[in-house]
Amino acid sequence: MTLLTIDTFHTGFELFQSIHIGWLILVLGILLLLTPRYKKASNELKFKYKMTIFLSLLLLESIKQIEALITGSYTIYTLPLHLCGLGMFVIGLQIYKPSPFIQEVLFSITLPGTLSALIFPGWAIEPVFSYLHFHGFLFHALLLYYCIFLLASSEIKPRWWNIRYGIYFLLMVVPPTYVLNKLANTNFMFINWPAPDSPLELLETWLGNPGYILGLVLLVLVLWNIQYSLFFAIKKCFVIK
């Protein structure tokens, strides 16, 4: 494991090294501590948990937007249009207008997207003491907590057939995002090219670009199959016990 140096705090961190692993352990530890408490909480307290997460997400994102404006670094890419940024709004909808559609989007889109972001953080290049560094981990940790809390308390009940809701959501947001990326030379949702140092780079290497997009679609379908199969296998084990 790479030793920390002064330069590390100015240039960012490497994936799966000291800082990254430390954050993952912290996020997981808090998750294991709070999930049982949320599951046993009253409905009133659960609502407070959810509102605290939602308002914290809004605060973190607002500070990010304001900082970019103040420092003159604001660009269209600062907008919260990645899947995890959209997850913040999905959570708001789930709190105020819960529906099977929103619940399935949280499970099929927000949860795997958040896990992917924490494992392969796109903010690794940011200085370790910068706001964007802390924003990246805290924002995605809160998204993760929200999804897992609701799964543990059966407020989210995934169904195989409801995978279609995840497909509908992607059909709504991906095409306009792809066009925006082309027009503005951005890469929201990593649709147009892979995130640096992520497994998605293999898809572009193997399939080229735009063949990468087809590979991305197939990858999503494979991951969904694994995710749903794993969820129902775990659920069955708990039922047996």
Tell me what the structure shows.
There is one protein chain. The longest helix is centred in the C-terminal third of the chain and has 30 residues, at 211-240. This protein is globular. With 241 residues, the chain is mainly α. The chain has helices at 8-11, 18-40, 43-71, 83-96, 100-119, 131-152, 163-184, 200-207, 211-240.
Overall number of strands: 0
Mean pLDDT, as a whole number? 91
* Most strands sheet: none
General shape: globular
Query: Which sequence of SSEs, written as H and E, runs from N to C?
Result: HHHHHHHHH
Provide the β-strand percentage band: under 5%
What is the structural class?
A: mainly alpha
Secondary-structure blueprint:
Layout: H1 8-11, H2 18-40, H3 43-71, H4 83-96, H5 100-119, H6 131-152, H7 163-184, H8 200-207, H9 211-240
A few lines on this structure:
This protein is an all-alpha fold.
Relevant terms:
single chain; 241 residues; mainly alpha; 9 helices; globular; disordered N terminus
